[in-house]
């Protein structure tokens, strides 16, 4: 990709990027005109916990004065599980977004920059033991949960996992819907996670702007009790329930209030508790 080539005449010829931290794109899927996912090679030394994020990006445009290029990096949750030999990412496309206006055009064989320093709070270590685990996502906030629903520890540690995903329309749910279906039908995963693991996974998608079987913001469905009635659950309690939240600032703020209302406390890697939150990248 042009972004990673040094700004010299010689680089106009196809060149292998000389930058450190370059990884090769292996697959790209466009889900809607606003959403795409892609896979890249995984650095051999990269170890991460399912749910963590890394900084990824492209080379920025050359500085008009010096001609120097700086990397343009953003935090992206790794959507693939820790055991996968490649890395997967799920991204929004923002037409005037500095990074995603360009990242949306990547093709297999192109290079991206990936800083191999995974971090994040949407990890099992940041939660105290519990019986039921809730994943609350809006939009591309689904990404860390795409990793965690393929992580054996999720099924070892909990009796039930409820994955909620709220999007504007049905097409925006498709990446998650297909992934859940694939997870349920994957024999290799069944071997890895234990027979019957998929029975623990409850998928609860909702839309807010297009008609679908379940409509509404997940926050409203929690507050009016619809979700509990739909799932035959009494409610959320700090004794049994744990939650991970990943979405827009609005969702995160509203859901924090709701979860704290149920008596759950926010945890961190250094101080595990009953729920954890992270902002989904939106630019
Ligand atoms: P809505 O259509 O009512 O705004 P976006 O595509 O803008 O990132 O939003 C993704 C989804 O998150 C949309 O369905 C949107 O609903 C929903 N959403 C936005 N803000 C909140 C919030 N504060 N609480 C719950 N859901 C939210």
* Sheet of most strands: 6 strands, antiparallel
Describe the strand arrangement of the main beta sheet, using strand numbers.
4-3-6-1-2-5
Query: pLDDT below 50 for ≥5 consecutive residues: which ranges?
Result: 1-15
Gyration radius, rounded: 20 Å
What's the overall geometry? Answer: globular
Q: What compounds are bound to the protein?
A: adenosine-2'-5'-diphosphate
What share of the residues lie within helices?
Answer: 10-25%
Along the chain, the helix and strand elements come as EEEEEHEEHHEHHEHHEHE
Please give a quick description of this structure.
This protein has 8 helices and 11 strands. The strands form 2 sheets. Strands 4-3-6-1-2-5 form a 6-stranded antiparallel β-sheet. The N terminus is likely disordered.
Keywords:
globular, six-stranded antiparallel beta sheet, five-stranded parallel beta sheet, 21% helix, 283 residues, alpha/beta, 8 helices, binds adenosine-2'-5'-diphosphate, single chain
Spell out the blueprint of helices and strands.
Layout: E1 22-30, E2 35-41, E3 53-59, E4 71-77, E5 86-92, H1 100-103, E6 111-119, E7 132-138, H2 143-148, H3 152-157, E8 160-167, H4 174-185, H5 187-193, E9 201-207, H6 218-223, H7 226-231, E10 241-247, H8 249-261, E11 275-279
Parallel strand pairs: 7-8, 7-10, 8-9, 10-11
Antiparallel strand pairs: 1-2, 1-6, 2-5, 3-4, 3-6
The protein binds adenosine-2'-5'-diphosphate.
Residues 138-139, 166-168, 208-209, 217-219, 248, 250-251, 254 line the site of adenosine-2'-5'-diphosphate.
